[in-house]
Design brief:
18 helices, disordered N terminus, about 70% helix, mainly alpha, disordered C terminus, about 325 residues, about 0% strand
């Protein structure tokens, strides 16, 4: 796949522009100057994620686009990524640093947070917090280069583009990200429930990824529901799922609120929680810099209080999910 092949998918075309030109510009640079570097580093992802998700979900609705970009998924690899969080985490941890210095630091932050166990109990005295401080101190110069949009080398660009068309990245954008955004669950946990015959989990995954028909345990449940009178409605639901795109359909506002809730939580874990007004200013800055609106992000609620309430509600949903998903469930 050539660099031009990236243009087959809109979400990759957008990220291609950020690779070439950098993210921190204009109004976003002014926003960045008011916040700690590690918060700005993480917020870069949040800044581009909503539009990327909108375009990705559109592309998932037309799976031939993703197939043209990445090729057909390799079934045995695909199912290993579903079945084992350890395999998934190892593969993604090896892949993310190939996308540049900032993603490499994200990977280290992820490892520090994963090693902390219960993210809902992290505070300034925990070992995890000290580890995050070490990461920030060690990479400060690189973080500053990234925030200043220092140009990357041609070799780095080539590595990034090669990584963008791997099966690992394909699984990340086609399965994991939609599961987290649409269903607020990791694909591994959702898959484990589906393997136990949970109808709602089966419905969600079959709408998202028809490759799961290659899994004998998933096929077993479809067959069982087809043979039971009591399972007739479930069987009808699952056959409909095979013909249908993922749901729910989320508006841009809903996606941005979900990202905002996650950003509020993650920045608190990092020791510098962003307020809802600051997150709103972040989205406004992105909207101003990238030509969508001149003044602010009109996808967000008009009343700041409404946005704050929505972020708080989303944050509470995320906290509830994390408390239910203990570390032992993802091993």
């Amino acid at each position: 796949m050539t660099k031009n092949g990236v243009h087959e998918c809109r979400f990759l075309r957008r990220n291609n522009a950020f690779i070439e030109n950098g993210i921190i510009q204009g109004a976003l640079k002014a926003w960045a100057s008011e916040n700690p570097p590690i918060v700005v580093l993480v917020s870069q992802l949040a800044a581009i994620l909503p539009e990327t998700i909108v375009e990705l979900l559109d592309d998932i609705g037309e799976p031939q686009k993703l197939t043209k970009m990445f090729g057909e998924p390799e079934p045995s690899f695909w199912l290993r990524m579903y079945r084992s969080y350890a395999v998934f985490n190892r593969r993604i941890s090896e892949m993310i640093p190939m996308l540049g210095t900032a993603p490499a630091i994200y990977a280290q932050i992820h490892e520090a947070l994963r090693g902390a166990g219960n993210l809902t109990q992290i505070n300034s005295e925990t070992k995890c917090t000290h580890k995050l401080d070490e990461i920030l101190t060690h990479h400060y110069e690189y973080i500053q280069d990234d925030l200043d949009n220092k140009p990357i080398s041609e070799a780095q660009r080539d590595t990034i583009f090669k990584t963008l068309v791997t099966q690992d990245f394909h699984f990340l954008v086609r399965v994991v990200l939609p599961c987290v955004v649409l269903y607020r669950e990791h694909s591994v946990l959702l898959y484990r429930k589906a393997r136990l015959g949970h109808p709602d989990s089966l419905d969600k995954l079959l709408r998202l990824d028809k490759m799961l028909l290659r899994d004998p345990s998933i096929n077993k449940w479809i067959y069982r529901y087809s043979q039971k009178t009591a399972g007739a409605r479930t069987y009808e639901m699952l056959t409909e799922a095979l013909r249908s795109p993922p749901r729910p359909h989320l508006s841009r506002q809903q996606i941005k609120i979900r990202v905002a809730g996650a950003l509020s939580f993650v920045t608190e874990v990092l020791g510098h929680r962003l307020s809802a007004p600051s997150i709103q200013n972040l989205f406004d800055a992105v909207s101003v810099d990238y030509g969508k609106d001149d003044l602010r992000d009109y996808d967000l609620p008009d009343a700041p209080e409404s946005f704050s309430q929505a972020v708080r509600r989303e944050r509470n949903i995320l906290l509830s999910k994390l408390k239910k998903a203990s570390p032992t469930k993802l091993s």
